[in-house]
Amino acid sequence: MPGPRDGLTAFWRGLAPGLRERLLLGSCGQRHLLDAARAALALGSPVAPALVLASLAEGPLDGGLAAEILAAPDLLAALPGAVRPLLASLSTGWKRPEDVAGYEELAAGRDLAALRRFLDSRLDRGPSLFWLNQSASLALFENDQDWLAASLARPLPSALAPALEALRGQAAFLRGDFAAADRHYAAALVLGPSILMRRGLCRRALGDEPGAVRLFLACLEAAPWHATAALLASEPPLPASAPIPGSLAVLLYSWNKAAELDATLAALFASDLGGARVIALDNGSTDATAEVLSAWAGRSGGRLARVDLPVNVGAAAARNWLAALPEVRAADFALYVDDDAEVPPNWLGLLGAAVTRWPEASVWGCRVVDHAGPWRIQAADLHPVLPEPPDPQRPEEFRFSDLHIQDLDMGQFTYARPCVSVTGCCHLFRSATPRRSGGFSLHLSPSQYDDVEHDLRLARAGGFAVYQGRLAVRHRKRTGAAGRTSRAEHGNALGNKFKMQAMHPRAGMEAVVRADRDRLLEDLLARLAALPAPDKEHS
User: Fold this and answer.
1) Pairing of strands 341-342, 399-400
2) 3-state DSSP assignment of residue 379
């Protein structure tokens, strides 16, 4: 007799490959969902309207998207009638101004005070959903509760209420008022099943796990394409914590970051290290790094060993140097940690749980969040994405999935599953792996992308990474839109990205992508098969 989840299994198996490989990445992030919606529309898939509505739920003040929906009669007809007043109000109040260039210049400079003055001045001139959307998005990104409240308190049409409630729900979650967040999201259900997933995250944060799972299942019943709801509703048989099965060397390298290194070592030695040994390499520092290492060598009771280099050899060479040390070669596992990362007390147990579940993996990693704003995720599970069709001018080009930077952290990335790459901020190997792979590429010196490129080489050799989303490591270096870099740093990163792409031509990457998506599908189908029947009582 067919089980309650057989329909979901059939749904995923029946999806067109071009759409399925997008949806397997997850169901968060407006840009990602719009990309999936475009693919669904091109394929004539019946899930296209739901994906469009889900993308609106991710950016509920996006009047430009609302106008596009209203201009597509067939698409509009497939959406619930209750959403039409919101779409009409969004479209009517949306007009892209002519002076956007000035705002974009300010945004590039990342001067928050100047950005707020600019946006407030535009909103003071009169209602503008375009500027309100920019203001609300930036206020949420910075978790500036007063700014968001003031922005949403301006006179607005009543038809916008569901969009405003969704934004207030996210704000309440970020300030830790999970019950209020749930109430706000309950008033935004017109935005579609993705709101049920958000409510499930609120219930989970409140400690109501049965209520959370009911909401994830309700989301999945209404939106069978919602991979994130499936990931959150059903975990693989993963222990809460487990020791790393063997001896361990924790490895750091540092250059002129004495204060950050001191904080990193404080967190490391405050954690449960078991019998792990910590080895730190001073990469030719000229600041107080040597003094910091000397102090911690004493405080740690001999658990910290050090390597001192006279010059900075770069990140890749430093990793390789550490991997070649006799004491590291003798260990079963080697775990690299950035010198500006802070680990929680139970971090090794969480990584050990991932090793226990996927012992055949090549590398294990975690979720990395902004130290100053932990609601901003810097890295999660990374999956390569190839442009379709290939760009004839740049046939080698590929990118990695970035759903995690399109959304703020409400717990939607706390799953564990296979992937192609995990961030080098905190990643675990069997100690022989970097030596057998040829090590980290010196072509990518002094830094940037050497960790990702190494994971790609492992993947092309048939390996894979595992992402442990239950472990969050706080990283002091801000990345992406939140970071400030010099032109030299930006140029180095961009150059290394192009080098990495050239090192892995499309033909080889196509095989990596196929293996990754097959692995994701196998993982998802196993989760779906284990799901209980949904409970209708999810209000």
Assistant:
1) unpaired
2) strand
State the residue for tokens 């935004």: 188
Q: Is the pLDDT of residue 502 over 90?
A: no
Residue pair 178/206 in contact (Cβ under 8 Å)? The answer is: yes
Q: What does the alpha-carbon distance between residue 178 and residue 336 come to, in Å, rounded to a whole number? A: 35
Cα 77 to its chain centre, rounded Å, is 34
Would you tell me how many other CB atoms lie within 10 Å of the CB of residue 137? 16
Q: Which two tokens mark 154?
A: 């301006």
Phi and psi of 248, rounded to 5°? -135, 135
Predicted confidence at residue 80, as pLDDT, reads: 94
Q: How far apart are CA 199 and CA 180, in angstroms?
A: 11
Range list of β-strands (E), 129-260: 248-254
d(CA 127, CA 114): 20
The alpha carbon torsion through 270, 274, 279, 280 (nearest 10 deg) reads: -20
Rama region for 253: left / alpha / beta (φ>0; ψ in -120 to 50; rest): beta
Q: How far apart are CA 423 and CA 400, in angstroms?
A: 12
Q: Check whether 395 has a pLDDT greater than 90.
A: no
Specify whether the CB–CB gap between 172 and 149 falls below 8 A: no
DSSP structure string for 260-311? HHHHHHHHHHHS--TT-EEEEEEES--SSHHHHHHHHHHHTTT-EEEEEESS
Tally of CB atoms within 10 A around 243? 16
Q: What is the dihedral of CA 511, 517, 523, 524, to 10 degrees?
A: -170
Task: Please tell me the distance from the alpha carbon of residue 28 to that of residue 523, in angstroms, as a whole number.
Answer: 18
Q: Beta partners for 468?
A: 366, 416
Q: In whole angstroms, how far apart are CA 187 and each of 165, 166, 212, 241, 391? A: 6, 8, 17, 37, 44
Residues 6+ away with beta carbon under 8 Å from 409? 369, 374, 375, 376, 377
CA–CA distances in Å: residue 341 to residues 252, 317, 477:
10, 20, 8
Which pLDDT tens digit goes with each residue over 231-258?
999 877 788 999 999 999 999 999 999 9
Residue 468 CB neighbours (<10 A) = 28
pLDDT per residue as tens digits for the range 41-94? 999 999 999 999 999 999 999 999 999 999 999 999 999 999 999 999 999 999
C-beta atoms surrounding 495 within 10 Å = 13
Nearest to residue 468, comparing CAs of 428, 519, 410?
Answer: 428
Give the H or E element holding residue 453: helix 450-460
Q: Widest CA span of the chain, in angstroms?
A: 72
Nearest to 155 by CA among 121, 117, 127: 127
CA dist., res. 395 & res. 469, Å (int) = 33
Residue in the block written with tokens 């090794």: 348
